[in-house]
């Protein structure tokens, strides 16, 4: 049985970014930037006022000074006039600072009578001016390659003059659920049929992380049925299979894939849930074989498939799993040779301490109800000793 | 100037969930469940084996016992045979437990020779059996109304026999950016034009939270241009305007909306960035007027628009803003009468303590570059005193 961290590294080593596409700024949120974005213009493009008020010379900015108002410049309507000593120009938030002026007095500090403005306070050079390029200058790098674009990044790209964004295309990932006992929700079923839940969970996860996920037709536990699905593999950036990867007589996934030319890397790892995890390469396509139990399948997806997808998308993937600190909310027993990912409740603590994490009493890998109620997975290292409530520990938050 | 918490409560008070639609299970992830979901079947539907092995009677489960193998039942192919004393049935993970058997011996603990199975260890009643309904029973409530459905919920709904899901429809929210100085990215511009970034940020945010966001045509600072956009308002579940809501002569948004029948609730709140925030009702449509500076617009969207959207979606919205504890990473000065949301960097601490939060030196509300680099907003209460690095504080994480 392979160590989880080694398995994760071996998978990531074999995965490369899958390619680019161009999308509109309006469709860029949630996509991964494929190359660094530089500013095509400065922001603000010219010096502008940050308040409603009057542009003037700092030499005139004494309390009680009376200035002549030479005109008005709404935002978007710059004035061609020059502010000389003894004069000022009415302007508004976003208005261009006129020639000659080097500060803005806010309107609350000005008494206006006709064309005359009396300053009610002193001021200093530069006040309430946003200087040209104060946010960024033409040519500045705004966003790095590999960035998962959020709303603020979209705003920055817009302000930087970008209408089209180079992003990673959505990796196309096939999800193949296998098993004679599996049926699609609502399809005709016998008394012992199990409704397929694993594939729907994994597809939802992959889509939420930016993949184009394809539900392949269910495959039965025989080579013909599996072969039909496997024949599509060359059109995929990754194939994820569910079930049939264990040691049972009817676990045909591995043997059928190998008959189609799979180069097997490993197929058993030291984790719970999820011992039967298979990884290999079929032509150019990485293949991850997940266990059939739906909880195990999704936990393995979080640990292995999600980082593989991030690498396909060109994101930086940390070498280590991204765990968070927590404190045990209950005593836990000693662990065996497998890294354990226990389904848990989290209780936030108001004193600023890490949350308390309490494992559910049942950790069966077919229990979707408890899995849906869980907020995190508690990591228990191989051969970890029994530990008392209050001991620091590490968790993975569930999406 | 209205207190932020009061403003937030007054907005939420006026918002009601916006309606339902039915979507396929395959499209349910990221949607909000509109009514509780009960199980239409039990999971597992019958008692099944959790391992590959042999079904037998617990009375026979002594080390060294030799049992006759009466047949085999792959998953999905239940056997009609009954396991009697002295016999066992070969089965696999997911196979139905045959009549007469009350436990499973895993294959690693059985030596098989032809039709004879020698047990290599003792066993106990019930072992390696997943009992019918162990996950849930028909009629059990699986998911509550208002739940934002994630991958695990989709799996649970599938396992519970649901093919179609009742969800809140996506609220249709119009976003109207205003200002003579504003242009769309790439559109013809003059030297002092500002590329519209606020609307793109807010649309990205709204979409990521489950809304159908509509970029209305840009409106200039005159009543005609605004009226054209406002005429569409009755088709929207909410209207969000950006800019033009301040006290300047050219800030026509409020007056134009009022001329069209807006019932104004408030239009100034005690926060920074974001003093000019307007809220009212135009016919059946709530209207939120955001400040024109893009950083202020997005911060106000997080504080006011996002919870309003969650309420439109039928989600439970906590009364208070959901802040997290942190520790000041630098000294901060005293605050004035406005609740301040300072753009900050977060530094996680490995000792399990809350993260350190360090405000950027510039807090100008037009600086998108610093905003994009920020990880959180530090909350500084009105009239908060100067505080030293290391003092506990509260933050809002940025999406």
Automatic annotation (TrEMBL), chains A, B:
Keywords from the UniProt entry: Magnesium, Metal-binding, Molybdenum, Molybdenum cofactor biosynthesis, Transferase
MoaB/Mog domain location: 174-311
Signal peptide: none
Cofactor: Mg(2+)
Domain of life: Bacteria
Keyword Ribonucleoprotein among record annotations: no
Catalyzed reactions per annotation: adenylyl-molybdopterin + molybdate = Mo-molybdopterin + AMP + H(+)
Record flagged with keyword Transferase: yes
E.C. number(s) listed in UniProt: 2.10.1.1
Pathway entry: Cofactor biosynthesis; molybdopterin biosynthesis
InterPro entries noted in UniProt: MoaB/Mog-like_dom_sf, MoaB/Mog_dom, MoCF_biosynth_CS, MoeA-like, MoeA_C_domain_IV_sf, MoeA_linker/N, MoeA_linker/N_sf
NCBIfam families attached to this UniProt entry: Glp_gephyrin
Family note: Belongs to the MoeA family.
Physiological role: Catalyzes the insertion of molybdate into adenylated molybdopterin with the concomitant release of AMP.
Name listed for the protein in its UniProt record: Molybdopterin molybdenumtransferase
Organism: Acetobacter farinalis
